[in-house]
Structure formats: C-alpha cells, structure tokens
Amino acid sequence: MPRPTVETRSDAIPHWYGGDDVLTLVEGDGLTVYDNEGNAYLDFVSQLYCVNAGHGEERIADAITEQASAIPYVASSKGNDARSALAGRIAEVAPGDLGDVFFAVSGSEANEAAVQFAREYTDARKVLTRYRSYHGATYGAASLTGDPVTRNAMGRRAETGGAAKFLPPLSNRSPFDADTPAGLAKQAADHLEYVIRQEGPDSVAAVLMEPIGGSSGAYPAPADYWQRVRGICDEYDVLLIADEVITGFGRCGEWFGIDTEGVVPDLLTFAKGVTSAYVPLAGVVASPAVAAHLHEFGIEVGQTFAGHPLACAAGIAAMDVYADGLIENARSRSDHLEARLRDLEAYDAVGDVRGRGLLWAVEFTDPETGEPYHHPWIESGDNPVDDVIDDAETRGVLVGGGRPRTQVVVAPPLPVTDDEIDEAVDALDAAITAVFD
C-alpha cells in the first residue's frame, strides 16, 4: 500500500502535546520569561517545577562554560572530579546517613534505578506507590505512576508489571472517614500496612512516595503519617524510597522535602532542581546498607549521559546559589504565598488550598456538590481550570495544571519576592473572577 502524501514540514514536537498553540519562550531573567513576541510572564511554575534558582543565574552558566573548557564529557563508567565533588556535596545535605550517589539523566530514570536497586537488595519484585502520584513517563516509571492518563498512555501497548497502588492520605474528598489529621494519618498508614500484608510482605521490595505531592496537587501528609510509614516499612523489611524529583533542593523550604517530616528514607531520588534545570541531571542517594550491596555486587547497566560533567558543574554551582540565601528565602516567603493563596478561598469555586514551602495547589470544586466542576480523568468536555490557567497567562503569569487538572499548581523559583507573589496571585485572582463569576 502506498504511503499517504503529507505536507512536508520540520518542527520540534512538544511534550504533553495536544494540538493547542504552544507558547514559545526565548529569554529569561530571574522569575521573568519572555516569549518570541517580547511579552513578559512571571514564571510561577518554574517551567516544570525545576528552575529553582531562577532564570539567568550567571554563576551556574559560568560553571558550565568553565567545565566545558576543561573536559566536556567523561564516560559514566569513569571517574570525574566534578562528578565526585557533586556527589560529596549532595551527601553533606542528604537526610540522615544517606551518602553514596548514583547519577542518572532524568527523574523517571532515577526512580527506575531506585526501584532496580530496591529489588536487587531485597530480592523482592513489587513496589507500592500511591494513587494520585506521578513518578515519570518512561515505561518503567509510568507503571509506578498513579496518574491514569500517564499510566494508560504508556501501558496500552506494553504493560510493565511489578507495581501495586495504595490510597494517599488526602485531606479533602478522602476515601478515609477520619475526623482529625491524626485519625487520617492512622487510617492511611493502617491501609498501607493492609496492602503490604495482602500483597505478601516477602514480595514487596519498596514503598515509593513523594514527601509532598508534586504535580498531583501539592498534598502534604498529616502529622505522624511518615513516621508511621517508616515504622511499617521497618517491621516488614520493606525499603522506603522518597521521590524528591520535585520536592528537593529547596522547593519545600529545606534541602529536601522529607526533611520537613523528620524521617530518613532508604533511598532518595532527585532531578530537576539539582542543577536548577540548567543541564539535565538526576540521581539516587543510597543508605550505607544499600550502597554497600551495590559496591559489592556491582551495577550491570548504565546511561551514556548520567553524571555528565557539565551537569555536575552546574549542580555544584546551583548548590552554592541555594546555600547563599535561596533556601532561607523559600522558607521565609512561604508564609506570604500561603496567606495570599488562602485569600482565594473566599471564592465559592475554590475548594481547597494546600502545600508547603513554595509548592502549592488551588483546587476548584462545585460548592453545591464538593466535587470538581470537570474531572478530566473520567469525563470529556471543556474544563474551567484550563480557562483559569489560560486567563492567567494572558495576564502575564504562568501557573501549572495539576494531575488531575481540577487544580492549578503554584511553584515559583526560590528567589521570589513578596511583590512578585502579590502580582502573581492578583493575576490568578482576576483569572478566577473572569472564569467563575
């Protein structure tokens, strides 16, 4: 059969592409980005929750240039001074006794590596992750992801097994019937233990969770939940993996989101903010026991660009920038961002505001039913949340669409000021008025 004739064209295909007009950005400075027509936008989603140090940070750019002049690439099977230096720097700020670092390229690949290590260390195959989670969009990472849009898109042709799901401790529209945060923490942790027991503890290698939900809606867990989960994992010899791809490197007001919970995981994954997204880089930080196992038995797989020297140089510089007041700024600006976002609760259409540090979500629900106006996972048609995001963009502010898109996610770069917070939330306020009033 002859191939159909199509119009010849050459263009980049965007990710998460649905045929809509795509904003083309060509320049950035601090929290401001500019499109190809010269329009300015406050970047209150840090692009993909990753440009933590802001745009145009010359210290990071200079470090990349310097490393490129010294040696631009070293095979991931070899040693490199920048690679070793960054691993040491990460170990210095990692929770507890986590230390040895295995580098990867993307967050998806870091999560896959952590799962591989957990399975090899425990000699078990199952990994438990939450519904309402996102851990990546490669075949392996998509099987870990609780977002059905991602999981179904990857699994409709070739399903990857070995992952089971459990319910998250949601603060609103919860499947649990707790009346207090303490009750919710107990019920949700008891449920996780139930799932482990039903799956068979000897078959479960790890529990993988984000300390605070990222693109799934900035969900913080109720107090004591993480401590209970840590105890359950210890009781059943299951490893605990913290996915810090979004929550790491100052996003939640500390070096890592899990630091706000007072728990030390067995493995921690990172990406995005480690270089402020100036160069792709990701990795896994391992406990001494897991690291010793990897050193003894070796690792039979790798990636060409894992631990790329340019990325490691960018990571060292980014950590210098974060330590030079940015993490402190994220912590101190969090109260003002929360207060301004909670002002939006005056709208009947705003059902919930939640988050931590500089990672927040505003969820929209019908006041008569308490349910989303439109749930894109289970129904088709127009979504007013899309209209809010689009309207905010016309007012010069970029915010994210959560998973599911019943909410917007607000996550500015760490050097944000109170004035920029006011400008961005004022624009979001006006967008909500335009769409819902």
Radius of gyration: 22 Å
How many β-strand stretches? 15
Q: Characterize the overall form.
A: globular
Order of helices and strands: EEEHHHEHEHHEHEHEEEHHEEHEEEH
Note poorly predicted spans: none
Residues in β-strands, percent: 15-25%
User: CATH homologous superfamily name of the largest domain?
Assistant: Type I PLP-dependent aspartate aminotransferase-like (Major domain)
The residue fraction in helices comes out at 25-40%
The computed structural class is alpha/beta
Any idea how many domains? Answer: 2
- The CATH topology of the largest domain is Aspartate Aminotransferase, domain 2
Compute the separation of the termini in Å.
55 Å
Examine the secondary-structure arrangement and name the CATH architecture of the largest domain: 3-Layer(aba) Sandwich
**Count of alpha and pi helical runs:** 12
